[in-house]
Amino acid sequence: MAVFGTVFMPQMTMITFENEKWSDAQVVSSQSINLHPGAHVLHYSSTCFEGLKAFRHSDGSIYTFRMDQNIARFAQSSQLLSLPNVDKQQISDMILNIVGQYANDVPEPPGSMYIRPTHIGIEASIGKAAAPSLSSMLYVLLSPVGDYFAGGAKPLRLLLDEDGMRCAPHMGMVKSGGNYASALPPIMKAQKEVQADQILFCPNGDVQETGAANFLLIDGNEIITKALDSSFLHGVTRNSILTLAKDLGMQVSERSLTVKELLERASKPGTEAALSGTAAVLTPVGTFVHKDTEYTVGSGAAGPTTMKLRQALNDIQWGKAPDTHGWLVKVK
Ligand SMILES: *Cc1c(COP(=O)(O)O)cnc(C)c1O
Questions:
Q1: Which one of 168, 214, 309, 313 counts the least CB within 10 Å of its CB?
Q2: Tell me: the pLDDT tens digits for 121-174?
Q3: Alpha carbon of 213 to ligand 1 centroid (Å)
Q4: Does the global pTM surpass 0.90?
Q5: Which atom of ligand 1 sits closest to the CA of residue 214?
Q6: Which fold has domain 11-145?
């Protein structure tokens, strides 16, 4: 299977915002877009995106998962970047239409169709460093993906970073390109110097998230994760896992967690840690690296509660368990 996110469906659906209004959706080639070299997005990073998935059930029907949550976050990101306001119903129609067009290409579980709505400022004006783009382009790109775990669910190794931060604190909840670019130098350094898979950003000792996934600590019957604020991305997977944990009778604690408490709890038997996100679902964490010391999380292997919650989420997505929260929308 190809590397995650490198295969695209030949067509995508696109709209543009010009003269104060959105165009009708058009299905166009996903090979290229027409962009002026002075486009606002290329200079001042007026860009945001979403990531959600559509799943194939055993009867051949296709469903999106929590699409309303992703569209709401997309609308919020657009607003916080002073991009034109989006029409949520229009985006929902676009997603259902383009996924419907490629229904036959949605892979069987554990694969899925990854859906990437993208919104960019396209006004050709390099003088607008301190002004919004008045025109924009919004497209929905599709990428069939396989099992993120194809190489086995090897627990991740995370560097705890208390000095830097992933992005500016007021930008954390915006799913915007510049945030990822700004986190790259420390992530590449951590990969090179301590062979970390990811950095767990913990500015001033406050455990936050990694470059593209939320962090959950599991201690027996309790799940602990940072309470929502503007400094980090409000994951739909995070919310789904917490909801399923409550359904299973677990105690969910959304609160601040310090590096000190994390390391004290880490090595106790029964402790588990995991990253949550649409691409990786729920990925076990096996090791923390902190100031040249290594801490094994629990037994160091994928924890049973992590795998149980991951399975519970997949079962709903794959139509093997009842969708009691109304998270699925039928495409076809
Ligand atoms: C997308 C993303 C997540 C996970 O969000 P989901 O909605 O669960 O996919 C977490 N952190 C960052 C920085 C992200 O970009």
A1: 168
A2: 999 999 999 999 999 999 999 999 998 766 666 899 999 999 999 999 999 999
A3: 5
A4: yes
A5: 10
A6: D-amino Acid Aminotransferase; Chain A, domain 1 (3.30.470)
